Amino acid sequence: MPLSEDTDGTLSAFRNLPYLQRKIKIRQTKGVPMKVGLIGKFALKELHLDIDGPRDVLHTNWVNIVPHAYVQKSTPTTIIAGVLTIRAENSVVKQQLLFEKQGILQKIRSYPACSEITKIRII
User: Fold this and answer.
1) Please, what sign has the CA dihedral across residues 54, 57, 98, 71?
2) Which of 30, 84, 85, 120 is most exposed by smallest CB count within 10 Å?
3) Are the beta carbons of 117 and 108 closer than 8 angstroms?
4) Cβ partners under 8 Å of residue 5, min gap 6
């Protein structure tokens, strides 16, 4: 049985605690239950691990994106808030990739799945 709308406020007042209204995120399914297979796909998409997602496209085309000498010495790791993190093998490779940063970013943006990437961070 659902609680009334003011139950949280009443409980907070009873316990002498400040009342904070919850920010509810609207379901993307609009209240309709999802099938089990779709839940997995949805979770993978949220984590950018889905097939043909940006990480998959980068790993597949890494040979075409980075200069040939640094393909085996670097790898794309994460994409968070439009920032791609590239892990370099050592500081020399990191410095050379920093010189090539704009060219790498232009090549990455040429792939439709990677259009959300706006910056590159090299570690």
Assistant:
1) positive
2) 30
3) yes
4) none
Please state the pTM of the whole predicted model.
0.60
Amino acid at 103: G
Quote the DSSP letter at residue 114: G
* 74 phi/psi in degrees, rounded to 5: -145, 160
Over its length of 123 residues, how does the chain's per-residue pLDDT go in tens digits?
455 555 656 666 666 666 566 666 666 677 777 788 788 877 777 776 666 778 888 999 999 999 999 999 999 998 888 899 999 999 999 999 999 999 999 999 999 888 889 999 999
Q: In what order do the strands lie in the sheet with 83-88?
A: 74-80, 83-88, 119-122
Angle at 92 (CA atoms; ends 89, 94), nearest 5 degrees: 60
